[in-house]
Amino acid sequence: MNKPTYMKKSDKALFCKGLQNTHLHDLTLIVKSLYPHRDIVNPYKYEIESHPKWFASQKRLLIALVESLTLLNQKYREERQYGELVANHEDFATALFLMEGELEVAKPLLLLHSFERSFYRQIWEEFGQRHFSCREAMAVSGLSKTRTWWKLKELKSKGFVAHVGSRGQAHLYKVKLRTYAL
């Protein structure tokens, strides 16, 4: 009677990661074969290619995955004059999410739009790990109270800022993500 062979936990994780990578590559090939003549404008291509810590194969797969997701959502995407579809931030974020096992390094900051990154940079440089209120963030950023509140709410939903309590009627926030490298 043969004994079942069990994989070590680390080997199993590598095996599953390889399968996921293969499935994502197959997905891009299937979508490309369904829509062979559609051109995609990918505004995130330069940002992906210029990332220093990702391998070339990861970059190629991520670019192909963004373009495949754009094709799958073509009904909701902007179309240029000659029928080119334009990838948007949702496609980029979804591709990053699907490849999160491989792209662990510096991925979270790519999920922020440029204006969110600049706001995050301002509050990070000013407050670091100290608590701050919406009014204090408003003074640092120069934005209106409503805009500051919305930006803090967005950063909170993406996990960059945490609500830690209150001071009187003011809500206090704290920057959660310590690795800031832009």
Structural commentary:
The protein folds into 2 domains: 9-110, no CATH class; 112-175, Winged helix-like DNA-binding domain superfamily/Winged helix DNA-binding domain (Arc Repressor Mutant, subunit A). The chain contains 7 helices and 5 strands, in the order αβααβααβααββ. The chain has helices spanning 9-34, 45-49, 56-72, 89-98, 114-127, 134-141, 145-157; strands at residues 40-41, 85-86, 132-133, 161-167, 170-175. A hairpin with a 2-residue loop joins strand 4 (161-167) and strand 5 (170-175). The longest helix is centred in the N-terminal third of the chain and has 26 residues, at 9-34. The chain is elongated and about 60 Å long.
Task: Give a brief rundown of this model.
The chain is mainly α and 182 residues long.
List the defining traits of the structure above.
182 residues; mainly alpha; Arc Repressor Mutant, subunit A; 2 domains; 3-stranded antiparallel beta sheet; two-stranded parallel ribbon
Contiguous uncertain segments of 5+ residues: 7-18
The percent of residues in helical segments reads 40-55%
**How many individual helices?**
7
> What's the overall average pLDDT, rounded?
79
- Supply the number of structural domains: 2
Which of globular, elongated, flat, extended, rod-shaped describes the shape? elongated
Strands ordered across the widest β-sheet: 3-5-4
Supply the helix-strand structural class. Answer: mainly alpha
Cα distance spanning the termini = 58 Å
Task: Give the strand tally.
Answer: 5
| DSSP strand content | 5-15%
Largest sheet: 3 strands, antiparallel
Q: Mind telling me the C-alpha Rg?
A: 21 Å
- Elements, N to C (H/E): HEHHEHHEHHEE
